[in-house]
Amino acid sequence: MSTESAHVGERAQGAADRPRPYALIAEWDTPEDLIAAAHRTHEAGYRHVDTYTPFPVHGLAEALHFQDNRVPWTIFIGGVAGAATGWFLQVYVSAIAYPLNVAGRPLIAWPSFVPVTFECTVLFAAFAAVLGMLGYNGLPRPHHPIFDAQHFDRASQDRFFLAIEATDPRFDVVETASFLRGLGAAAVSEVQNR
Amino acid sequence: MTVPVETEERFLTGENSYESIDRAISSIVLNQRKHKLPWYVVALIAFGFLQVMMAALTYLLYKGVGIWGINIPVAWGFAIINFVWWIGIGHAGTLISAILLLLRQQWRNSINRFAEAMTLFAVMCAGMFPLLHTGRPWVAYWLLPYPNILGLWPQFRSPLVWDVFAVSTYITVSAIFWFVGLIPDLATVRDRAANRWVRIVFGILAMGWRNSTKHWSRYQTAYLVLAGLSTPLVLSVHTIVSFDFAVSIVPGWHSTIFPPYFVAGAVYQGFAMVLTLVIPIRAWYKLRDFITLNHIDWMAKIMLTTGLIVFYGYMNELFFAWYSGNTYERYMMSNRITGPYWPLYAALILCNGITPQLLWAPRLRRNVVVVFIIALIVSIGMWLERFVIIAVSLHRDYLPSSWGYYTPSVWDWATFLGTLGFFTFMMFMFVRFVPMINIFEVKELLHKAQHRNGHQPVPAETPAAGDPGATHEH
Question: What is the CA B199 to chain-centroid distance, rounded?
Fold first, then answer.
């Protein structure tokens, strides 16, 4: 583990007259340490917490007690909408707008409507999946205060971060920082709102 | 033989850390000096063929489809042969990325990005053919249902309209799937880029991805569902393509075996194309740690399996031509085997049925040169299969008075070879400018491999309380 512990900046005393920071962020070298830290952060009562890892780490979302079922529901609704669109489009076209009687065959020939209905279902559901995922994640958002965090470019490479956000009711610059350091973080730093 | 270790280990060799994975893969994008002579030679040749395509298309638009070898019994010819062939190539991409993801096959991680890009470009090539074959591609939007002043609508009981929906949905969903898979890797490249402009471009493409666990959680749900959606989509696309034939009553086309047989053929040929491209590229870019011999071995096994299914399809066609007792079906088969196109059918059986049997031998499956050559032979064989199904079935159907013969013209060849150039050129551009191996999934693989080997969390005996109350500011 890296020994470059938080090199001491200015004392945070008298922080009251400064604007509240965005978050306090701590970093680890391995995903296992981060999971352990996330568990302890939750136990300590912090709720506005997020972790940043270069790849999805199994168990982190559970450690943060994070659950969001909106994406699957959005996809489901997208799929249903797609199926309905595909089906009624074909019914409208073949039976209402342009009825074509071929040797008395049924206008609503449902077996031949299956492929297009299916394709529309998949298409709409796929769009719902991507737009839902991006939307609930608040993306695209090129700027975010967390990008100013020290070493944060390594969150997409080989470092594992945990941020306790200033909106957390228990957040206190001094106490939270010492709590994070007590978790064995390699470095703890403050992220400003900008 | 070495003792088999965990799956993850076998598909990621060498001494790797998260950092070295980043370096190996993103440097192909970031360090342009990594591109050596082979890249330039192949890209240049491909670019030349791309120009051939442009010339062929220009002349086609000027003159009309009469410059092709199509005629009245064989009205489709190269256009649909190449359409079906290209679409099939795309299928391995989706299969690798979607079906293997659902089956939790970790070995897909090193090849899925590559295969998905292949899908995209192959489907672009595929789409070109029916569009041009309409003769007036500038009014191709007539195929779409849109309200128009003539009150005309497409005929939804026709498989050709199903095709429009299937192929356009397929390319859209493939593009979405590919891009969603890229987002975290684009962020990695953004964060590693030293050049300001590279950082800005990748920053825009990554859309502000910040690796948050909450984002990852939604991301994984969406990605998995996309895979779940793509799986039946692949099967449906080639099934619908086979309906173009099977729903008609032409002997040799009107067959219930077509949907599964076409899907298997697509996977077969798609894996052949992945191997054709992956084998040289892993050597040029020194990616042997990520695309291991095990990958090649497993892909060869899939090729062997699907090849056997395809071969079963050939036998099944023969059997049913005989068993149905239908004169036309029987004649179609004897014409296929002994008629004017018999050398093509013989070559088809040789390429698709017999050559791949070499892959039963483990030593040959792990010999990259042999696999490469077999993959090329399979690609040719699958192309011959499309030719046999289309041209040979059409040129002699029910009425001997309307029989004909089909010879592709030089413009047919120019268009086909041109799309090969287009495809290769796009693939080489992709290799150069986009991370071609899924970085975050390979890291995940490494993490799991370390975990299995009893990797313990580092004991938390850090210089805990350096100076309580002090925070790091900047």
Answer: 30
pLDDT digits (tens, 9 = 90+) for B202-242: 888 888 888 888 888 899 889 888 888 888 888 898 899 88
Say which residue the tokens 């649909």 belong to. Answer: B80
For residues B254 and B394, is the Cβ–Cβ distance under 8 A? no
- Separation of alpha carbons B177 and B120, rounded Å: 10
> Is A9 within 8 Å of B470 when comparing Cβ atoms?
yes
Contact of B240 with B285, CB cutoff 8 Å: no
Nearest CA in chain A to B199: A153
Q: What is the spatial distance between Cα A122 and Cα A67, in angstroms, rounded to a whole number?
A: 25
Sheet strands (E) in B24-155: none
CA distance B81 to B76: 8
Please answer whether residues A25 and A188 qualify as being in contact, where contact means their C-beta atoms are separated by less than 8 angstroms: yes
Q: Which of B23, B84, B12, B48 is nearest to B428 (CA)?
A: B48
Reported as a pLDDT band with limits 50, 70 and 90, residue A18 is: low
Residue A100 pLDDT more than 70?
A: yes
Helices B293-323 & B327-338 angle (0-180, nearest 10): 130
Q: Report CB contact under 8 Å: A147, B236.
A: no
pLDDT exceeds cutoff 70 at B469: no
Flag whether the pTM goes above 0.90.
no
Could you give the CA distance from residue B148 to residue B100 in angstroms, rounded to a whole number?
A: 43
Determine the pLDDT at residue B155: 87
pLDDT tens digits, residue range B349-398? 999 989 999 999 988 888 889 999 999 999 999 999 999 999 888 888 88
- Side-chain-side CA neighbours of residue B166 (13 Å): 27
Nearest residue in chain B measured CA to CA from A172:
B469
